[in-house]
Amino acid sequence: MATGPVSPSSAAEHDDHSLPVGTRLGEFEITHRIGEGGFSVVYLAWDHSLDRKVALKEYMPASIAVRGGKTQVGPRSERLRDTFDAGLKSFINEAKLLAQFEHRSLVKVYRFWEANGTAYMVMPFYQGSTVRDTVRQMPGPPDEAWIGGLLRPLAEALQVIHEAQCYHRDIAPDNVLLLAETGQPLLLDFGAARRVVGGMTQALTVILKPGYAPIEQYDEIPGMKQGPWTDVYALAAVVHWLITSKTPPPSVGRVLNDTYVPLTTAAAGRYSERFLAATDRALTVLPDRRTPSIQAFLADLGLLAPASAMPTTQLLAEDDEITIIRPPAVAREPAATATRQPTSTPATVQTGSTAAGSLKTRLVIGGAAIAAALAAGGWWLARPPAPTSAKPLPAKQEVPAEEKPLVAAPAPVAGPPPSVAPTPAPEPLPPPRTAVAPAPAPVAPKPRAVARPSPSPVAEHAAECANVLQRLSLGESSPELLERVKTLGCR
């Protein structure tokens, strides 16, 4: 109720749509009218309970409502009752949503309530100027760094509300306030109530801002859902206005005749190619071809920090090859597994997100272990005998001393399969030692005995398997290499 007669200065501010200065609504007293929009009036008020200035927003859709008396609000006619009530409900829902969020670029709601046939919302009193007014005072368009500093906090705020399935739907330069003290951008005037009212009346020019509203916000276009991409379009339209001082052509007209000039052409040379191309993509008319989310828009603009832009799977790629060796069944993976994945690439192994990549990684690590075992077995088969193993040869009395170097390579080694490798055949022949002792000739062949481990077929096979498997362990995965594994039968 009013606390006293309205002063002349106050009367100058008062009209049929706004409350007179001095009006009391509970503990709040109207001291000044800040502004009026299509469906609400915002006042500066004094909070008598906490002794502070606040902003008080009243639901007052001037096109369909009228004030009766000083405080009462109602529809202009009963025919508009349903539309009025729908907008009132959305106004309250908007207040409830804002009350749930905590972000420095979102308006804080102290309180909201219904009275006098309408509803009210009390918020902090923010001092500053809108982006539209700020940019118009600049000597020229802001640079890319300034625009990036504006977009980051706004994008963070939009991500917060998008996670709650809430969408602003009314982003524009005059709905972003730059706080006077810090320059922090603040997102104003959520469009939830505006969308519902617009859907039930023909006054769409009041509800939507041409150039900023994407095609899916026009109710005449069926089958196009609103979502994060709706706010992406509006935010990109703000960037377009900051760069060119013009709004993009209305999205409805672009469906029939798209006269949009890409920023990569209109602003080439003044901003980075990546920045301009990202904005052009976000302004695509059809939603299914547009940038799908705020985070994707930031990534396209190059405004995401490197840590947040990098997929988490890449951070795990290094550890994947280390931790995957832990399962004991890795060594049992047959080499044939590799042949079933001839088109696998190192990128598949790095992600660790598919079964094929996991098998490939286990094969590489298991192959390294198998290669080590085969190399050891090959060395055992082809190793030179012990220092005394050169002497047992004279045990065959029919072999002359001068021919000993020719039979230095132990013939039994080439025949047995790898499974016989552990049996040291030459060691149980001590008797020939006495026969060789008087002969000085065996001393000369010792240097040639070093050449005795000439690779036998088994040793060559083991060495080649070790080489192939080692190349696999280092990440090489060409089809030829995998086919070679299959041909050799490395296990």
Automatic annotation (TrEMBL):
<feature type="region of interest" description="Disordered">
    <location>
        <begin position="331"/>
        <end position="353"/>
    </location>
</feature>
<dbReference type="InterPro" id="IPR000719">
    <property type="entry name" value="Prot_kinase_dom"/>
</dbReference>
<feature type="region of interest" description="Disordered">
    <location>
        <begin position="1"/>
        <end position="20"/>
    </location>
</feature>
<feature type="compositionally biased region" description="Polar residues">
    <location>
        <begin position="338"/>
        <end position="353"/>
    </location>
</feature>
<keyword id="KW-0067">ATP-binding</keyword>
<dbReference type="GO" id="GO:0004674">
    <property type="term" value="F:protein serine/threonine kinase activity"/>
</dbReference>
<feature type="region of interest" description="Disordered">
    <location>
        <begin position="408"/>
        <end position="458"/>
    </location>
</feature>
<feature type="compositionally biased region" description="Low complexity">
    <location>
        <begin position="446"/>
        <end position="458"/>
    </location>
</feature>
<dbReference type="GO" id="GO:0005524">
    <property type="term" value="F:ATP binding"/>
</dbReference>
<dbReference type="InterPro" id="IPR008266">
    <property type="entry name" value="Tyr_kinase_AS"/>
</dbReference>
<feature type="domain" description="Protein kinase">
    <location>
        <begin position="28"/>
        <end position="303"/>
    </location>
</feature>
<keyword id="KW-0808">Transferase</keyword>
<dbReference type="GO" id="GO:0004713">
    <property type="term" value="F:protein tyrosine kinase activity"/>
</dbReference>
<dbReference type="InterPro" id="IPR011009">
    <property type="entry name" value="Kinase-like_dom_sf"/>
</dbReference>
<keyword id="KW-0547">Nucleotide-binding</keyword>
<dbReference type="InterPro" id="IPR020635">
    <property type="entry name" value="Tyr_kinase_cat_dom"/>
</dbReference>
<protein>
    <submittedName>
        <fullName>Serine/threonine protein kinase</fullName>
    </submittedName>
</protein>
<dbReference type="InterPro" id="IPR017441">
    <property type="entry name" value="Protein_kinase_ATP_BS"/>
</dbReference>
<dbReference type="Pfam" id="PF00069">
    <property type="entry name" value="Pkinase"/>
</dbReference>
<feature type="compositionally biased region" description="Pro residues">
    <location>
        <begin position="413"/>
        <end position="445"/>
    </location>
</feature>
<keyword id="KW-0723">Serine/threonine-protein kinase</keyword>
<feature type="binding site">
    <location>
        <position position="57"/>
    </location>
    <ligand>
        <name>ATP</name>
    </ligand>
</feature>
<keyword id="KW-0418">Kinase</keyword>
<feature type="compositionally biased region" description="Polar residues">
    <location>
        <begin position="1"/>
        <end position="10"/>
    </location>
</feature>
